[in-house]
Amino acid sequence: MEPQKAGAAGVPALAITELRKQYDTGVQALKGISLQVDPGDFFALLGPNGAGKSTLIGIVSSLVNKTAGEVEVFGVNLSRDRDSAMRLLGLVPQEINFNFFEKPFDILVNYAGFYGIPRREAVQRAEEELKRAQLWDKAQMMSRTLSGGMKRRLMIARAMMTRPRLLILDEPTAGVDIEIRRGMWKTLKEINAAGTTIILTTHYLEEAENLCRNLAIIDKGRIVEQGPMRTLLAKLDVEGFLFDIDGELPAQLPVIEGTRLVAADSHTLDLDMPRAMDLNSVFARLNEAGIRVRSMRTKSNRLEELFVRMTGDGAQATAVDTTPETAA
């Protein structure tokens, strides 16, 4: 049977069927993964370290050999027509892997040349992508002089040189501060809005919630949950707040039944409570204990809570970080 042509009606951007990977050591990294990503989607692939995300991405991007199963990119079978499948796909790996002694402009033009794109067209595309990445003023500088955030944006610009229909991003904002990260979010949203399907892996759960419409959670080589982001988040009955306190907290915090109340620091309370619970009753108990709340804010932890529940191992939450790192 002939594979469906890329772009044919109803063909998924990525279709994975019973994908398995067992390494020579006997470790089963993937245990029958089945997954479908629709064209135009912004899809999150989440899971703790060692869950199988990197192996899955490695197989889809043809860097790792599968043990069993099938992968199709826009209807093109990866095993039967690797070259055609790879022309439809762009990869931004977690590791920065360009030559630091090349200029950004040359990195992009040379990368396009590897894929047979004529130089005149490559030069035009390089200018477009560097401008979109806000790197045009750095086009002729040595790449080693770029900041961590600029290097990340350059990786995305390079991947977009081939105009991929499916873009896979493996921890694209790792190691950059929150301001740079939000700027990259804007760029990725623009790329997605222009029609490119994006698959994102990230440990920043606020990032997945902000960007992605659908997600899959992988743990120990299996998909433990997948579906629309909103539907999965609606399963949560817990919400979290941070309270900024006037003065210092007492040594003994009040016990409020049904809640988890801890001191984040000497001036901040961290509260998790059922959604159905009246927040006024919490304030009343705090007032009784002599604790005055100056201000409050919602924690961006809904997806983290879902992740912990789906993997069934609270200890693995340490592999998931919602705190921005600072760029080097």
From TrEMBL:
<dbReference type="GO" id="GO:0016887">
    <property type="term" value="F:ATP hydrolysis activity"/>
</dbReference>
<dbReference type="InterPro" id="IPR003439">
    <property type="entry name" value="ABC_transporter-like_ATP-bd"/>
</dbReference>
<dbReference type="InterPro" id="IPR027417">
    <property type="entry name" value="P-loop_NTPase"/>
</dbReference>
<protein>
    <submittedName>
        <fullName>ABC transporter</fullName>
    </submittedName>
</protein>
<keyword id="KW-0813">Transport</keyword>
<dbReference type="InterPro" id="IPR003593">
    <property type="entry name" value="AAA+_ATPase"/>
</dbReference>
<dbReference type="InterPro" id="IPR050763">
    <property type="entry name" value="ABC_transporter_ATP-binding"/>
</dbReference>
<dbReference type="Pfam" id="PF00005">
    <property type="entry name" value="ABC_tran"/>
</dbReference>
<dbReference type="InterPro" id="IPR017871">
    <property type="entry name" value="ABC_transporter-like_CS"/>
</dbReference>
<feature type="domain" description="ABC transporter">
    <location>
        <begin position="14"/>
        <end position="245"/>
    </location>
</feature>
<dbReference type="GO" id="GO:0005524">
    <property type="term" value="F:ATP binding"/>
</dbReference>
<keyword id="KW-0547">Nucleotide-binding</keyword>
<keyword id="KW-0067">ATP-binding</keyword>
